[in-house]
């Protein structure tokens, strides 16, 4: 038996509406978009907090990799502090990568070889500038913990049916090849027809059916032929309207939606280059807060600035490039990633940075101490001349709850107002973000947001 | 046994030289070295070849013109070969540290005539190529990323305003005072006066500090010639004596921002350096025993909190000194009569030496329009790193 034990969705703070992207078309959708310091890694890291106990495998799905030849699953497993040597694999290049990972997790759990598999899907896709009308997009990360212990929903069956046809696809660079009419009109229809025939699904056993394909409508006929009632059984994709199509996350995101909609049997058909069929039985009722509305980006110019993705651009610093070093990132990981500080054995003063002697009592022995991710602002300033995507850069000196002090940037602060710029005495929370990126590597570290 | 020097070194400054400070597009690093050195040598009425040891202070060769990496860059423009020359680098205290090293060498008998020269050539690069870029491109990839120099002092201003009721106007009025002083100094980078509203209304750099709360980036050089007090030739020289020299590194570059005990209300380095210098000079009540002061006002807030760190008033009371105009020319203890860094500018390696030249000019009675009348004893102060390293030098017109 295998179960979805827990799950979580991480969304960025900002939304841009179809109205802002293409005002004359009258569309009413929203797209969740990352802040300049977010990417698939930081969104996934955010989603995975508190999901790390006893994990023995990590699967990572995305079509928007940060690295070209490095497993994101291994990278995120390391950031989460999971044991070295666990099973870690990436799934990618098709938007059904998320359900690919879920399918593989299900098979491995059922084989008995693995007990707790973290399935992560994270997607930060931007269409070509000016072509936003032609490609659905929304940024998100979804994580599911798949176990052999009873959880929220049982995965009763998983299957995958290959097909060579692709819908719109990218070949070289970012340009999308839109001339895929045959696949669009026939591909999903043919593939779904095969799936329905092979899998012997009895339509009366199904409470909710989910089709994840941009051209799902073309396959309604197949569903009707198999006895489904489109109006009653087909789940409406409200996620696409509120945060956009989240690519490799979307199949899993819709599954979560279905679980929250109510009890019963759920079928996901997740399509591209074939169809994954995921069958769930949900026996629990989940109390789930509605998807956060987020902060609206009203100006197209701000959206363009966001897309520069952490390159320092403001104030004439076009050529500036931050120093990065894989050696420093690795050597200082204890503090930089895991927030492990040092507590003086004698006087109890807690330091973020390692020191030879306690600055307060000059004693030399320290115990390692896990620092908290919440705290109170001791002092802060807004830097107007630091080269960053949005000025000012707010720098915040934080006394952490439970001891220790750290100084970090405020983030998600593209619209500075009296109210949202962090001040002395404010309660803040640390979030894991990109300091910036250069042509060599992204540098991930902590920043803060107001609690 | 003393942990640090506790008595006077008996050193005299006999030659003073300082270039015009500003955007000196027509002068190179080497030109500035020659200008300052020649003035000081002439003032001391010695020959260049009499110099037996020299200390060169340049803080940032890599964001200047890549000169000042070693003492060699002092001797090459002067053609002064065959003596020991050392480059001194200690952030904003570099200039003062070159004087400290020269004084120690004289006291130890290593040489009989010493030169301390500070020079910085920052304006051959565009502003975007300078200190801010260095903070991004060269420093630790994670710690303090987002700060400029202004921000690392702005967080002190914010906390002090929060704790002690210091106002934005109090901070701005430091700049108003120093710009008035600077208008009297023909060698200052900026020579205009300004109002409180102008300071408050200038572009924000790091809240609450504006452009006019910040010193400009400047080219300049300054030089002093020093001898042992016993070697002063009273027929030629107008000597100024070093009563005390203190220098302390009291925290680190990153530590204040990660140390839960750091209060952002004062600079321990200034307190430690002042304690050393005052002890050597026998000063117990600084406000009564000192006639004028040059303070490291790289940003206006730094001058304010240094009043407290140098012991001119109790903690939290600096605002009363600026409100009462105690530190203005003609006040109880004039501070930065030169115009300070805010007017003169801050060629980092040169600043500490320029301050000593300024004090010495007053103690000689040769400071012209801005002369502090009857000045007998003055101190210069630098802080850098930011706030980690401080120097205090006490000067006297009698030994």
Question: Can you describe this structure?
Answer:
- The complex is a heterodimer of chains A (451) and B (399).
- Chain A has 451 residues and is of the alpha+beta class.
- Chain A has twelve helices and 22 strands.
- Chain A folds into two domains: 234 residues, Peroxisomal Thiolase, Chain A, domain 1, CATH 3.40.47; 124 residues, no CATH class.
- In chain A, the strands form five sheets. In chain A, strands 5-4-6-7-1-8-13-12-11 form a nine-stranded mixed β-sheet, with helices on both faces. A five-stranded antiparallel β-sheet of chain A has the order 20-19-18-21-22. A three-stranded mixed β-sheet of chain A has the order 3-2-14.
- In chain A, β15 and β16 form a beta hairpin.
- Chain A is globular.
- The mean pLDDT of chain A is 91.
- Chain B is α/β, with parallel strands linked by helices and 399 residues long.
- Chain B is 35% helix and 17% strand.
- In chain B, the strands form two sheets. In chain B, strands 3-2-4-7-1-8-11-10-9 form a nine-stranded mixed β-sheet, sandwiched between helices. Chain B has a two-stranded antiparallel ribbon with strand order 5-6.
- The relative contact order of chain B is 0.20.
- At the A-B interface, β16, β18, β19 and β20 of A face α4, α5 and β5 of B.
């Amino acid at each position: 038996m295998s179960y979805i034990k827990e799950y979580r969705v991480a969304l960025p703070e900002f939304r841009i509406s179809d109205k802002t992207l293409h005002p004359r078309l009258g569309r009413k959708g929203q797209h969740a978009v990352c802040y300049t310091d977010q990417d698939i890694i930081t969104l996934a890291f955010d989603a995975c907090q508190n999901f790390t106990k006893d994990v023995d495998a990590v699967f990572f799905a995305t079509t928007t990799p940060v690295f070209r030849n490095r497993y994101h699953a291994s990278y995120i497993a390391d950031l989460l502090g999971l044991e070295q040597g666990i099973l870690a694999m990436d799934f990618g290049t098709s938007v059904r990568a998320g359900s690919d990972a879920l399918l593989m997790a299900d098979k491995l759990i059922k084989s008995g070889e693995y007990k707790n598999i973290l399935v992560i899907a994270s997607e930060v896709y931007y269409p070509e500038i000016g072509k936003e009308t032609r490609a659905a997009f929304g940024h998100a990360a979804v994580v599911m913990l798949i176990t052999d212990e009873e959880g929220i929903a049982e995965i009763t069956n998983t299957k995958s049916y290959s097909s060579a046809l692709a819908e719109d696809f990218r070949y070289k660079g970012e340009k999308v090849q839109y001339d895929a009419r045959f696949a669009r009109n026939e591909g999903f229809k043919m593939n779904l027809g095969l799936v329905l025939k092979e899998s012997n699904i009895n339509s009366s056993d199904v409470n909710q059916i989910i089709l994840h394909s941009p051209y799902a409508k073309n396959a309604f006929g197949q569903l009707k032929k198999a006895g489904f009632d489109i109006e009653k059984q087909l789940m409406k994709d409200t996620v696409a309207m509120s945060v956009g199509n989240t690519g490799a996350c979307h199949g899993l995101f819709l599954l979560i939606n279905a679980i929250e909609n109510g009890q019963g049997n759920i079928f996901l058909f997740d399509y591209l280059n074939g169809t994954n069929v995921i069958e769930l039985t949900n026996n629990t009722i989940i109390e789930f807060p509605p998807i956060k509305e987020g902060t609206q980006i009203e100006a197209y110019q701000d959206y363009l600035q966001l897309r520069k993705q952490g390159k320092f651009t403001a104030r004439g610093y076009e050529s500036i490039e931050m120093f990065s070093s894989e050696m420093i990132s690795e050597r200082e990981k204890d503090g930089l990633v895991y927030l492990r500080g040092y507590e003086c054995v004698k006087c109890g003063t807690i330091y973020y940075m390692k020191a030879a002697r306690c600055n307060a009592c000059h004693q030399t022995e320290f115990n390692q101490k896990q620092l908290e991710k919440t705290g109170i602002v001791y002092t802060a300033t807004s830097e107007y001349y630091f080269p960053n995507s949005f000025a000012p850069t707010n720098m915040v000196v934080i006394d952490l709850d439970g001891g220790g002090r750290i100084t970090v940037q405020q983030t998600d602060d593209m619209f500075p107002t009296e109210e949202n710029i962090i001040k002395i005495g404010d309660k803040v929370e640390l979030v894991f973000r990109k300091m910036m990126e250069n042509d060599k590597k992204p540098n991930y570290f902590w920043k803060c947001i107001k609690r | 046994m003393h942990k640090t020097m506790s008595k006077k070194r008996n050193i005299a400054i006999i030659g003073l030289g300082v270039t015009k400070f500003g955007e000196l597009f027509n002068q190179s690093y080497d030109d500035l070295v020659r200008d300052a050195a020649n003035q000081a040598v002439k003032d001391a009425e010695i020959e260049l070849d009499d110099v037996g040891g020299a200390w060169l202070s340049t803080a940032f060769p890599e964001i200047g013109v890549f000169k000042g990496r070693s003492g060699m860059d002092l001797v090459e423009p002067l053609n002064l070969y065959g003596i020991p020359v050392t480059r001194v680098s200690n952030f904003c205290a570099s200039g003062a540290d070159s004087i400290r090293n020269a004084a120690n060498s004289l006291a130890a008998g290593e040489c009989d005539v010493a030169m301390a020269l500070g020079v910085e050539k920052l304006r051959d690069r565009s502003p975007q190529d300078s200190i801010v870029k260095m903070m991004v491109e060269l420093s630790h990839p994670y710690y303090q990323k987002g700060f400029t120099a202004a921000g690392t002092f702005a967080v002190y201003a914010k906390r002090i305003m929060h704790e002690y009721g210091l106002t934005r106007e109090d901070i701005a009025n430091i700049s108003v005072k120093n710009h008035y002083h600077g208008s009297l100094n023909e060698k200052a980078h900026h020579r205009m006066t300004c109002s409180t509203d102008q300071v408050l209304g200038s572009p924000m750099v790091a809240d609450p500090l504006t452009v006019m709360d910040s010193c400009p980036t400047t080219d300049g050089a300054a030089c002093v010639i020093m001898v042992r007090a016993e070697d002063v030739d009273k027929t030629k020289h107008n000597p100024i004596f070093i009563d005390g020299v203190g220098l302390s590194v009291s925290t680190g570059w990153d530590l204040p921002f990660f140390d839960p005990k750091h209060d952002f209300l004062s600079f321990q380095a200034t307190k430690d350096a002042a304690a050393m210098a005052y002890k050597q000079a026998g000063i117990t009540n600084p406000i009564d025993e000192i006639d004028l002061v040059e303070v490291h006002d790289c940003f206006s807030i730094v001058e304010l909190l240094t009043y407290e760190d140098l012991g001119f008033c109790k903690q939290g009371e600096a605002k009363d000194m600026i409100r009462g105009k105690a530190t203005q020319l003609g006040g109880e203890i004039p501070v930065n009569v030169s115009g300070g860094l805010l007017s003169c500018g801050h060629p980092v390696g040169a600043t500490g030496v320029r301050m000593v030249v300024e004090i010495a000019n007053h103690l000689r009675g040769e400071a012209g329009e801005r002369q502090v009348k009857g000045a007998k004893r003055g101190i210069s102060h630098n802080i850098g790193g930011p706030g980690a390293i401080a120097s205090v030098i006490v000067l006297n017109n009698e030994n």
